[in-house]
Amino acid sequence: MKKAGLVIAHLVFLGFNLLTAFYCLLAYLPFTYHQIHAGHLLSWLDAFARIHPVLNLAILPLAILLAVEPWRMGGLARWLAGGFAILQIAYAAVLTVHPVVDRLSNDSISLWYSVAVLGAVAWVPAADILCYSRNVRWIERPAGFGASQFAATWGAIFVSVLYSLVFLLLRPAGLSSREMAIALSWSLLAHLLFFLGVFLLLECLGLFAGLFRQPARLEFWFAHVVLAAAITALLRLVVWPSIGFAGWREELFSVALGLILSGINAGLALWLMGGQAVSDGIAAATCPATLGRTHSWRAAASVLLVAGIAGAWLAVRGAALDWNYLLQKLTAAAIWLTSFAGFYAIGAGRKRARSAAWIAAPLVLLGAYKGLQAASTADATEPILERCGGYDASFLLVRQLLTPPKREDSSFYQFLSRNTNIGVSVHVAPTSIDLAAPLAVSQDVPHIFIFTIDSLRRDYLSPYNPAVRFTPAIDSFARESTAFENAWTRYGGTGLSEPALWAGALLLHKQYITPFAPMNALEKLVTAERYQLYLSRDAILQTILTPSASAVELDPPEATMTLEFGETLERLEAQIDRRSAGAPPIFAYTQPQNLHISVIQREGTSVPPGEAYPGFYAPYASRVKRIDAAFGKFIEFLKARGLYDRSIVILTADHGDSLGEDGRWGHAYTLFPEVVRIPLIVHLPERLKNKVSADPAGLAFSTDITPSLYYLLGQRPVRRNQLFGAPLFTETAAERQRDAAAQYLLVSSYGAVYGILSAGGRQLYIADGVNYRDYLFGISTAHTSALPLSSGFERQQNDRIRNDIHQINRFYGFGDGAGGSS
């Protein structure tokens, strides 16, 4: 019980402080600050920040407990323990008087606070190692091979079987039994190759350690060097790209965190093995997983059972709320370590003879894997593996580790990373975006209502999908309006999509250039035309809009992630009814969150009783139905007040969403077609309808909305620029004509993922610099299909992306000698 208690004390104290350090790091990174801290994306994390001083006081006794044993040991361990205890008491006192965590800003102070917390965490493993390393007796290793090959083989089989069960539980649609067998076989092969590669590395280190007096001791520390390197690699390949952390700070942070986490394991292992004679360094290194029972199959089986259940539950239940498979990949990595430790404990007591076959096995498997990989590009296997990776995060991760990008691709991905999520410390002066000048007050301007429904998919609306039966109001609205059938967002994700809509242009990948007002073409228009603003001012609008005492706030700012369309429209109706005669024209903008995947998960994926949506994701469809009802009620309100025929009403989305396609959920860093295709329906007053026309089948982008308003309000000519949007409604077809051969850059708001839309919206190429993969999709009105991707076409598209990024950088004065990275 004492062992379990001290292990729990370590885990609680260290877990609390590591979460604190991570929270501070997220405040430093621009997009996570705006989405998580300012946007209140995770309510539990907000609560953690609010009560952080109280929690810190609560765990202070644990900190003192961890210092007791090192203090008793004396020497340098005592100094470390005493300093650690004093530091923790002072830290708790300061936080009680001056809370810091819930007041962090998006600046370098947050990063330094994160580093300071990590420094405090590092004291624990340092004191543990100094204290407990003296209690372990390292003895000569008996003859025999050890348990590495046993742990690697059975660990790989265990993980493969576990994730195969997850794969079957998730029931991927459209896969035949043969295709599923292919996917599961590949998963087993990949896991065996990876695990036996780890075995081979440990065997080599063990042979090297055998050249010295205390081989087990050296083996123990070699294992922790490998663990630190593995954690560092995992952070750099999986974690940091998913939150936009890059550069030399990321490299140092990764190494430091890898060493700290490895040191924590080493300190626990030395304490658990205290007083014992240890001949197997690997067994000692893995013993924290089994609480020091290095030869107990019962303890190991318990660990494997718990890990298996927890991993399967997280994979099945957490997929819809995951961020680019981040949680699932980290869970898979934890299960890898746990399963290896568990099977090592089972096999550690068995004497095994050395065998050259075991040494050669990883090399043979590597040859087989590479051969099959090369063959898969020439047949239909690769698309199957791509699809199945979405349902098997462990296979997805192991493929990512076993298939590093080619050198030229690696260089290109680095270029994307350098020009993505440009840090807050990099000052970029705003560049004025003037779609028309000078702006003058127009006569008899229409009211404007823009409803940007966050995450609304076009195929869940009946104007775009005849199978939809739950959006009658929007269907009726579309028949009275122009429904653009080939509409796209330029940015996958709210972070840049919403500002780009207001700017009417592509933006530098920075959240955000401030002041934003010189770039805010839509704000310039409504100010010049003397509109009365009615806004749901979310965290992004708080940054990009000029503060205004006259603007009517439809929702409280803290309601960013809880904006409910029906409630907002009711407040808007009440405000309209309060208007006096002769009041300025109305400009209303809101971006409700009913459909955001995090909101749906927070509400428990509920569906009202009696509702069914066969062929659709029911929790999402039921909320679309609720949005439709609220929108229809508001349109009837406008008609009853005589405002409808004097208003421009725009219903659109900032982006779409993945709802389980090939295991994908959400829109974190992806540009898949279901994420970047959007609905765009525009109603014009009768007097404007008779003057202008549009091409509903032509390409349209969310960045075209602001230029269209400029044109419709008579602010002409609207300036042409490759980065700017273009009017969708014009008096002549020539004014809105787009080059049929033109290619258009699409960008993830949050990561180094870029795309090229070509062939009039029928082809989409994606360069994924987060997961180091490229895709090509063919797109029709109703279907999307993966297409083969040749290396020549890939290079051509990458060159186009590179050129477009350079063009954006030059426009905003970043890069090419202007302080950026080329």
CATH superfamily name of the domain at 447-739? Alkaline Phosphatase, subunit A
Low-confidence stretches: none
Number of strands: 19
Overall pLDDT score: 87
- Enumerate the strands of the largest sheet in spatial order, edge to edge or round the barrel: 4-13-10-3-9-7-8
Could you tell me how far the N terminus lies from the C terminus, measured between alpha carbons in angstroms?
58 Å
Total helical elements: 29
Please give the CATH architecture of the domain at 447-739.
Answer: 3-Layer(aba) Sandwich
Percentage of β-strand residues: 5-15%
Instruction: Using the CA coordinates, give the radius of gyration.
Output: 29 Å
Question: What's the CATH C level of the domain at 447-739?
Answer: Alpha Beta
Measured as a percent range, the helix fraction is 40-55%
SS class? alpha/beta
* CATH topology call of the domain at 447-739: Alkaline Phosphatase, subunit A
Shape: globular
Biggest β-sheet, characterized?
Answer: 7 strands, mixed
Describe this structure in words.
The chain contains 29 helices and 19 strands. The two termini are 58 Å apart. Helix content is 53%, strand content 9%. Among the domains are: 1-135; 447-739, Alkaline Phosphatase, subunit A, CATH 3.40.720.10. It is globular. By secondary structure, it is of the alpha/beta class.
